[in-house]
Amino acid sequence: MISPERAWEILAAALRPLDPVELPPRQGAGLFLATPPVATLPFPPAAVSAMDGYAVRAAEARGQLLPVAFTVQAGDLPAPLPAGTCARIFTGAPLPRGADTVVIQEEVVVTGDRVEFPAQVPAGDNIRAGGEVFAPGAALLPAGTALGPVQHALLAAAGVAKVAVIRPPKVAVVVTGNELTPGRPRGGRIVDSNTPLLVGYVRREPAELLWQRRVGDELAPLQAAMEEAAARADLLLTTGGVSVGDFDLVPRVVAELGGEVLFHKVAMQPGKPVLAARLGKALVLGLPGNSVSVLVGYCLFGRPCLRRLAGDPEAFSLPWQMLPAAAAAHNRGNRVQFRPARGVREAAAPGVEVLPWKGSHDLLTAARATHLARLEPGTVVAPGTPLPTLALS
Fold it and tell me: Is the domain of 173 the same as that of 281?
């Protein structure tokens, strides 16, 4: 049995980003850049005014009364500025050739069509130089950047038509357990909550969900599903069947199909029996069957694996945040606990409350949680004690 830290080390070493593909930026939303995109246009495309005011030659304007030659709005192509004149100009408008500064409107006195300038008029004020943000050929974003709305805006401004991104990982989900049913339970059955849990999380990520299947606890259908995933998927998420019972068949199938076990069992609660293995082209992450174990296992291991495959360089630097405990909590066991917790505000400061729970099957408590809180073995946490927390969203 290994520590969570060792499990993260093993997975980080075992996984590399997938192959890149070229796409128009608008089709790459949420994906990670494989290489830095390069600008084909300068920004700004030419010198423009940063303020509403008057474009002028600084040396001609100091303490002088000058006529307004014309007005320049954003999008205009202005004529050159005649000597001894100024031009009314608005924010974002191109600077007329000959002008070397913009005096803001609050610093001048306008009388009819003439403008009186102050005694001090520095050259170069209130001008955004052409290409000052980036020039053609500039590398815009580092590899590993996730493409979101701001990145799309930048790429549009830079004239980038195609970007190289890591292709989305293909994910398969296999839920085991004869007791699970998709509808209302009968007899000894219970409703399958693991499929919507995992599918919902996968669909939030830069991933392609190939399929999800419920296979019960029979060897043949489980083997068929895992064999198909080994040939088609990059990541196979399974639930149930990873412990040591007679019907815990996932480790057996991995062995019979020639897979390589990376680790099996992590010293944590819930989720101790978690399994990681190589099987064909896929990484198999076998999670225990209880719903909170599935949640914890996915957030700690499944999501980082998926994001590493998708090209996120920080995938295994989980965003733990130290938050003060809002109430007392304890872990009297000998394994680290990852407990459902809820973010709260105490005296306008953020904190976290470790929620009372009934165990790894307590989906109600998990659904009310916003975080996982880490409790070390054999600890009693007093209110105000900083706790490592991981957001569930």
Answer: yes
Claim to verify: residue 252 and residue 366 sit in the same structural domain: no
In whole angstroms, what is the distance from residue 66 CA to residue 55 CA? 11
How many CB atoms sit inside 10 A of residue 61's CB? Answer: 27
Q: Does position 243 have pLDDT exceeding 90, yes or no?
A: no
**What would the two tokens of residue 270 be?**
């819930």
pTM: 0.90
Q: Which domain holds residue 336?
A: 321-391
78 in the same domain as 120: yes
The pLDDT tens digits of the residues spanning 89-128 come to 999 999 999 999 999 999 999 999 999 999 999 999 999 9
Does residue 275 share a domain with residue 327? no
Is the N-terminal amide bond of 44 cis, ω within 30° of 0?
A: yes
Question: Which uninterrupted H or E stretch holds 373?
Answer: strand 371-375
Rounded distance, CA 254 to CA 16, Å?
A: 21
What CATH number is associated with residue 76? 2.170.190.11
pLDDT of residue 54 exceeding 70, the answer is yes
| Alpha helix stretches (DSSP H) within the chain | 4-14, 58-61, 149-157, 194-202, 219-232, 250-256, 291-297, 303-309, 363-368
Question: Coil, helix or strand for 369?
Answer: coil
